[in-house]
Input
Amino acid sequence: MTEETIQKILQFRDDRDWKQFHNPKDLAISISLEAAELLEIFQWSGADLDGREKMDRIREELADVVNYCVLMADACGLDLDEIVQEKIRKNSEKYPVELAKGSKEKYDRLKGRTLA
Output
């Protein structure tokens, strides 16, 4: 996500004087609610695993989740690039390619896997 996009999200909020309502607790709730709306698109969808027929709704709900994540990072004084890169680094340690490639196992179960 570009800095320009982040600034547009923040400007949208600021133009409406909504920052006063954006505390970490309420933003975390909003992220969860919007993620649930994204999940609801797939409820009772049977074999429809990728939602191609529902891509407009997926785009809309995913954008809501991302927008609230940007607002949460701002409220907490966190740099999104920094925290995402740090998480990738940590996940790389927990899920080394040699053990995790092609596996859906959680990191704590990978340790027992043997290399092929």
Q: What stands out?
A: The radius of gyration is 18 Å. Helices lie at 3-15, 24-40, 55-76, 80-94, 97-100, 107-110.
